Amino acid sequence: MLDLEHYLNVLSHKPCALAGSKPLLQWREAGRWPACYDELWNRLRSRHGKQNGTRTMVPVLALGREFGHERLRTASTATVSLGACDVAAVRYLLTEASLQKAPPAPIDVGELARYDRPLPSVVDYDTLLLSTPCAGTA
After folding, report:
1. Rounded distance, CA 50 to CA 86, Å?
2. In terms of pTM, does the model score above 0.90?
3. pLDDT value at position 1?
4. What is the mean pLDDT of the chain?
C-alpha cells in the first residue's frame, strides 16, 4: 500500500496530481480518508480555485504527520462545521489546547490590604442624564 504522506512534498508542486493519485485511492479504500477531508477540500477549491485549493489541501494533510491523523480528522470536522476553509483554522484547532493559560493564582498582599477602597458608584451620573439640558452657549 502506498502512503499518501510520502508524496505530499511532490504534490505541493503538482497539486492537480492529488485527485487521481493511487495513494489517495488506497487511502480512500482503507478508510484513512474521511468525508470531512473531502468537504474541506471542496471548500478550499471553491475559495481558491482548483489548483490553489488543492495546493492548500496538501499542507492540511501534512499536519497529520505533526499532530496525528485522528486529531487532524477531529480538527477538520470542526473546521468544516464552523464554516472555515483555511489551513490556519485547522492548525489553530489543533493547537488551541496548548494556547489555554491557567488563571493566575491570587497574590497575598498582606499589609497592603489596609489600602483597599470600595469601588466608586456611578449612580450619581444617572442624575446628569435625567436632568435638563445645559443652557449654555458654545
Report:
1. 15
2. no
3. 78
4. 88
